[in-house]
Each structure stands twice: as structure tokens, then as C-alpha cells.
TrEMBL record:
Keywords: Cell membrane, Membrane, Transmembrane, Transmembrane helix. SUPFAM superfamilies: Mechanosensitive channel protein MscS (YggB), C-terminal domain, Mechanosensitive channel protein MscS (YggB), transmembrane region, Sm-like ribonucleoproteins. The chain crosses the membrane at residues 33-50, 70-91, 97-117. Belongs to the MscS (TC 1.A.23) family. Residues 190-269 form the Mechanosensitive ion channel MscS C-terminal domain. It is a multi-pass membrane protein. One of its GO terms (molecular function) is mechanosensitive monoatomic ion channel activity. GO terms for cellular component: plasma membrane. Residues 116-182 form the Mechanosensitive ion channel MscS domain. It is found in: Cell membrane. Its main location: membrane. This is Mechanosensitive ion channel. The keyword Transmembrane helix applies.
Length: 273
């Protein structure tokens, strides 16, 4: 009997203390929790409104379609994290452990994705600075071809022998890029050497006729056909013409063939014959 009464007298104060502690916690921290919850939902609503505004803004600014989801996701995720931290601070919750876990996760992700992040950064810079566009002919990383796709992590180039080459953007942006199409037209040089016995005026006239007969050669800047250099084993001739970048290869082959045909028809002695 006595033991039971003692147990009851010990339990009753502990329950009373529990209620008292809960009451004091509600009085002290309850308003902070309520304010934190209200601000959390207000913040979510504001972030949704900002998301809609950013979507419209990026569309009107003609930001590349590959970058829009990234910028949107990065901004919204960052705002959500800031909102959570602010709400936890208002509620009086301890942030030390949360901060340590977030820092460790960030360092681990950075180490694991270093190469991927480099390609990502290169892709972002390419899409923002636009050293080339889809359809441009570029020379980079030992490849010469037309750009068919620009993604965040890689760029796709179709070479002239119909090979699809995928180049990581990290390497592409950090190396020299030659954009053959940027200026719209290219200068085409066709040089060859003949012996000293060749009639120089005849050879120059043959070059001019070949230029006039070759499709795709522009009239401006004016084409040039001339003796170029005198060397110990012969005379070097040159033709300088301008063509559209897209017609460079076909014009080169056409002009070279017409010069060769003209020289043979005129009986000019060619090297090796």
C-alpha cells in the first residue's frame, strides 16, 4: 500500500511538470512557430509568382532554350533553400547541424562532378557568348564540320565526310575555335607551280577564264590571277577569289579542275609530264 501511494505521488508531479513545460513552450515559442509557418507559405507563393515572371522574361529576352530550365531551376532551388533557413531561424531551431550537412554535401558533389561541372560551365559560356551558332562551320579539337546541336554539356559537329562528332563543352570552350561561317564569305586560294618555259601571260589568262566559268565565285571583292613567286625550280602562280562559306569546297574543286583542263588544252607543260 505504501509503495503504491509513493509511486502515485511521484507520477502526478511529473505529468504536471510536463503540462507546465508544454504550456510555457507554447506561450514562448508558439507565436514564432505560427509566424514561421505563415511566412513559409507566403514565401512559397512568392516563389511561384517569381517563377512565372522569370519564364515570361526569359522567353522575351530570347535566352537559349537549353539554358532556360537551368537558370529557372537554379534560382528557384536557391530561393527554396533560403526560405527554409529563414523559417528555421524565425522558429528558433538550431542550424549548426543543417549547415554542416549542407556544406559536406556540396563539397562531395563538387568533387564527384568536377569534370561534368566543367563541361556544364563551358556550355553555359558558349550559349551566352555565342562564338558559333547551329549551322556554322567550325574548326575545333581537330575537327572540321557543321554544328548541328549545342547542348549544355556537349556540342555535336557533323564533319564533311558525314561523321557525327560529340565534343565536350569544357574542352571546346577552353581551346581555339575557328568559325569559318561567321563572316559569311571566305577567300579561296589556288596556287600551283610551272616551269620557267611556260608562257606567263597565257597561264594568267587561263586562270582568269577558269575563274569566270566557276559557279559560286563572287565578283566583289574582285578576283585576282597573277604570277606569285619565282622559285629556284619554277614560277608559282596564284588565284585569289571570294566565295560563300557554304560553297567553299565545291568552288575549290571546280576552280582547280578548270585551271587544269585549261592548261592541258593550251598545251602548257605540267610538272611531272
Amino acid at each position: 500500500m505504501y509503495t503504491l501511494l509513493i509511486a502515485q505521488t511521484e507520477v502526478v508531479p511529473s505529468i504536471s511538470d510536463l503540462y507546465n513545460n508544454a504550456y510555457h513552450w507554447v506561450i514562448k515559442s508558439g507565436p514564432k512557430v505560427v509566424i514561421g509557418i505563415i511566412l513559409f507559405f507566403i514565401g512559397l507563393w512568392l516563389i511561384r509568382q517569381l517563377r512565372k515572371w522569370m519564364t515570361r522574361r526569359m522567353a522575351s529576352k530570347q535566352i537559349h532554350s537549353s539554358l532556360q530550365p537551368f537558370f529557372l531551376s537554379l534560382t528557384i532551388t536557391g530561393l527554396h533553400m533560403v526560405l527554409v533557413v529563414v523559417v528555421m531561424e524565425i522558429m528558433g531551431l538550431e542550424l549548426t547541424i543543417f549547415t554542416a550537412i549542407l556544406s559536406a554535401a556540396t563539397v562531395a558533389a563538387g568533387l564527384a562532378l568536377s569534370g561534368t561541372l566543367q563541361n556544364f560551365a563551358g556550355g553555359v559560356m558558349i550559349l551566352l557568348l555565342k562564338p558559333f551558332d547551329i549551322g556554322d562551320n567550325i574548326i575545333a579539337q581537330g575537327q572540321n564540320g557543321k554544328v548541328t546541336s549545342i547542348q549544355v554539356f556537349y556540342t555535336v559537329v557533323l564533319t564533311f565526310d558525314n561523321k557525327t562528332v560529340i565534343i565536350p563543352n569544357g574542352k571546346l570552350f577552353n581551346e581555339v575555335i575557328t568559325n569559318v561561317s561567321r563572316e559569311g564569305k571566305r577567300r579561296l586560294d589556288v596556287d600551283f607551280k610551272l616551269g620557267f618555259v611556260a608562257d606567263h601571260d597565257l597561264v594568267v589568262n587561263i586562270i582568269k577564264q577558269a575563274i569566270a566559268q566557276t559557279p559560286g565565285i563572287l565578283s566583289e571583292p574582285a578576283p585576282l590571277a597573277s604570277v606569285w613567286q619565282i622559285e629556284f625550280d619554277g614560277v608559282k602562280y596564284t588565284s585569289r577569289v571570294w566565295v560563300q562559306a557554304s560553297e567553299y569546297t565545291s568552288a575549290q574543286m571546280g576552280l582547280t579542275k578548270r585551271i587544269m583542263d585549261g592548261l592541258k588544252s593550251a598545251g602548257v607543260k605540267l610538272p611531272g609530264t
